From TrEMBL:
<keyword id="KW-0509">mRNA transport</keyword>
<dbReference type="InterPro" id="IPR038506">
    <property type="entry name" value="GLE1-like_sf"/>
</dbReference>
<comment type="function">
    <text>Required for the export of mRNAs containing poly(A) tails from the nucleus into the cytoplasm. May be involved in the terminal step of the mRNA transport through the nuclear pore complex (NPC).</text>
</comment>
<keyword id="KW-0811">Translocation</keyword>
<feature type="region of interest" description="Disordered">
    <location>
        <begin position="95"/>
        <end position="116"/>
    </location>
</feature>
<dbReference type="GO" id="GO:0005737">
    <property type="term" value="C:cytoplasm"/>
</dbReference>
<protein>
    <recommendedName>
        <fullName>mRNA export factor GLE1</fullName>
    </recommendedName>
</protein>
<feature type="compositionally biased region" description="Polar residues">
    <location>
        <begin position="98"/>
        <end position="111"/>
    </location>
</feature>
<keyword id="KW-0906">Nuclear pore complex</keyword>
<keyword id="KW-0963">Cytoplasm</keyword>
<dbReference type="GO" id="GO:0031369">
    <property type="term" value="F:translation initiation factor binding"/>
</dbReference>
<dbReference type="GO" id="GO:0044614">
    <property type="term" value="C:nuclear pore cytoplasmic filaments"/>
</dbReference>
<feature type="compositionally biased region" description="Basic and acidic residues">
    <location>
        <begin position="358"/>
        <end position="386"/>
    </location>
</feature>
<comment type="similarity">
    <text>Belongs to the GLE1 family.</text>
</comment>
<keyword id="KW-0539">Nucleus</keyword>
<dbReference type="GO" id="GO:0015031">
    <property type="term" value="P:protein transport"/>
</dbReference>
<dbReference type="Pfam" id="PF07817">
    <property type="entry name" value="GLE1"/>
</dbReference>
Length: 704
């Protein structure tokens, strides 16, 4: 039992020694460490192993012996010699030393067979020991010999180490094989993944190639589309250029035709200018005072002759300008025609003056003869005048005032309406055009006639001369610019009638609207109308026709209501505006009538300042006196008579006073003393009559 306990103590010591503590880790392969690194080291016994072996087998103690030279087993040589102290030299038949692995551990018990095996191994080891002496100059160290038990124990330890080494090598090879398999598996898997990756990259490359090819095809299609579009634009531009070339060629042909026409017209104007010059020279010869000397009249014709010479010089200047190889322009022809007209007027004025002089001479002779007779009959005539005045007043009180205009006035009124109707019928084809060109010409002529009149206002100032010249050119058949376009009445056979009619209508409409709202506008409109009337009498007749149609009180005329005429038609005849909403109010009606009477009164007293003063006024103050006298000889109308008399006298009263002086004051006294009382009595009587409408359009049928 004591031996067994020591044995276990020995094994425990070996276990706790550095050689007995073997370590194993599964990470050695990954870290690259060698598993047998510790096992390859040479093992050696501890210095105290001898004492331990002595205690384990005291019966095998050997005597110390000294050897001449140290004995070493080359197969069991260690990196470190373990000295065993002994005072007795060792026999050559004994083992000198035994290496022991530090990491070897023994089993707790051994069998006899094991001991036999260990002993055989020890014998083999003894046979392998070289016991030949080795010469040495130094004395060999002293070595303590172990017991057979210790030697056997050392052999067991070596065997155990070999067993564990073999087992470790087997496990290492197995682990190495597993590791190789794992590496092969991983390598094959990685190879498959590499193949998949290469296939994926190849697929991606094909897709990119396909995408690039699609993009190139798309760009090719777009390029083709752009080329087609450019070709289409080129064809379109070629068409436009061809059209422009054709238009340019047509324009050139038109210009050539116009140039040809201009040459023809220039030659015609040149012939007309020569004819005008010839006529002016002939008329100038008629201005010589030879005829006056034959009749014994002593008249001063110096002013006529001087003016005639000036006109001849003016025409000669125009002819001299055209003699340089140029055709006379339209302005030159206008100057020549005006000179011819003025020459005719001079001749006519001179002839009238001569006729008046002859008449005066005859009258003087007759007056001398009749003066004696008049002196005898003067007293008788005065008595007759007094009796006639008394009888006239007496007759007026008995019979009352007139309810209709005089026959001569009605005849004049109908003639003017016939003139307007004939003029309207003349341009019927232009007023109702059937083609677009005629319709366009109609609109241009109408604008050219009405726009200048619309531009006349109380603040026109210096524009009146420009407006008048524009209207005069249009009525004279010359071209004017209206709305950026050249227009002339000569472009249509009935263009002059159309323009005259529309111009007269516009003048009356301005009085109806502009003058009715702004009374001061009557004078600039009237002065332009008077100038146009003087140069173009037909326009003046049309102005009167339109004025009488819209305002019959300007005649003066009270149209009677005929049988079968409805009230609305009769009110239209009287000048009222009738539409779907009914008849216009009395205030609006009186306002329009007032505007037209004011325009008429202004035309009567005004003349165009640049006109020929020697020519009599075509519609002067004598017509104003006639209108006022006939208005006072007719029955007064409620509201209308008072309004028209006030407007007429306010505009034209001063001019009538300067012209007729005392006779005008007599007329004013007649209005104050006799006409106003009759008007007041008539107005109060009309308010109680049942047949009087709200507009005062029905007249009483019995005289007062």
């Amino acid at each position: 039992m004591g031996t067994e306990g020591l044995r276990w103590e020995t094994l425990e010591a070996l276990k706790n020694s550095p050689k007995g503590k073997l370590k194993y880790s599964p990470d050695w392969i990954e870290k690259g460490e060698d598993i047998l690194a510790g096992c390859k080291e040479v093992t050696s016994l501890s210095p105290i192993s001898g004492a331990i072996l002595k205690r384990l087998s005291p019966r095998h103690l050997l005597k110390n012996c000294s050897l001449g030279s140290p004995i070493r087993d080359t197969s069991l040589a260690t990196s470190e010699d373990v000295p065993v102290s002994s005072s007795v030299p060792i026999s050559p038949h004994h083992i000198l030393t035994s290496p022991i692995s530090q990491s070897t551990s023994l089993p707790p018990a051994t069998t006899d067979n094991d001991d036999m095996v260990n002993e055989d191994k020890l014998e083999n080891l003894h046979s392998m020991v070289d016991l030949s002496p080795v010469p040495s100059s130094t004395p060999p160290p002293t070595i303590s010999l172990h017991s057979p038990r210790a030697t056997r124990m050392a052999g067991c330890i070596c065997i155990c180490e070999e067993t564990h080494r073999a087992k470790a090598k087997a496990e290492l090879s197995l682990r190495q094989e597993l590791q190789d398999r794992l590496v092969a598996t991983v390598a094959s898997r990685e190879l498959e993944q590499l193949k998949r990756f290469e296939e994926f990259m190849e697929l991606k490359q094909r897709q990119e190639y396909q995408t690039m090819r699609d993009m190139m095809e798309k760009e090719t299609q777009e390029s083709l589309g752009r080329q087609e579009k450019l070709k289409e634009e080129h064809r379109h531009r070629m068409k436009i250029l061809n059209l422009r070339l054709r238009e340019a060629e047509q324009q050139r042909l038109r210009e050539a035709e116009l140039e040809k026409q201009r040459l023809v017209e220039g030659r015609e104007r040149l012939r007309a200018l020569n004819a005008i010059q010839e006529e002016v020279l002939q008329l100038n010869q008629l201005l010589e005072p030879s005829s006056a000397t034959q009749t014994g009249l002593t008249l001063d014709h110096t002013s006529y002759i001087t003016r005639g010479n000036q006109l001849c010089s003016q025409v000669s200047e125009v002819v001299r300008t055209t003699a340089e190889g140029q055709f006379p322009s339209v302005e030159d022809m206008t100057v020549a025609e005006r000179a011819l007209q003025e020459m005719r007027s001079l001749l006519r004025a001179m002839q009238e003056e001569m006729a008046q002089a002859q008449e005066r001479k005859k009258k003087e002779q007759e007056e001398e003869e009749e003066r004696k007779k008049q002196a005898d009959l003067k007293a008788l005539q005065e008595e007759q005048k007094k009796n006639a005045a008394l009888s006239a007043k007496e007759k007026a009180r008995k019979q009352g005032l007139q309810t209709r205009a005089e026959d001569s006035t009605l005849k004049w009124y109908k003639e003017l309406q016939d003139v307007a109707s004939q003029c309207a019928q003349a341009f019927e084809d232009l007023n109702n055009p059937k083609d677009m060109q005629t319709k366009k010409l109609k609109m241009e002529l109408q604008k050219a006639a009405t726009i200048p009149v619309s531009q006349i206002s109380s603040i026109s100032g210096s524009q009146l001369k420009e407006i008048f010249d524009k209207i005069d050119k249009l009525l004279s058949g010359r071209q004017i610019v209206s709305g950026g376009k050249s227009v002339s009445t000569s472009q249509h056979p009935h263009g002059l009638e159309f323009v005259s009619y529309k111009l007269a209508e516009k003048f009356v409409k301005q009085g109806e609207e502009e003058v009715a709202s702004h009374h001061e506008a009557a004078f600039p409109i009237a002065v332009v109308a008077s100038g146009v009337w003087e140069l173009h009498p037909k326009v003046g007749d049309l102005i009167l026709a339109h004025l009488h149609k819209k305002c019959p009180y300007a005649v003066p005329h009270y149209p009677p209501m005929k049988d079968g005429t409805t009230m609305e038609e009769y009110q239209k005849i009287l000048g009222y505006r009738v539409d779907d909403s009914g008849v216009e109010g009395q205030d609006s009606f009186l306002k329009r009538m007032s505007g037209m009477i004011r325009l008429y009164a202004a035309i009567i007293q005004l003349r165009w300042p640049h006109s020929n003063k020697q020519v009599p006024d075509p519609h002067g103050l004598n017509h104003g006196w006639r209108w006022l006298a006939q208005m006072l000889n007719m029955e007064p109308l409620a509201d209308v008579t008072a309004t028209l008399l006030f407007d007429f006298l306010e505009v034209c009263g001063n001019a009538l006073l300067k012209q007729y002086q005392a006779q005008f004051w007599k007329l004013m006294l007649l209005i104050r003393d006799e006409y106003f009382p009759r008007y007041i009595y008539y107005h109060s009587t009309c308010l109680h009559q049942h047949n009087l409408t709200l507009e005062g359009a029905v007249w009483p049928k019995t005289s007062i």
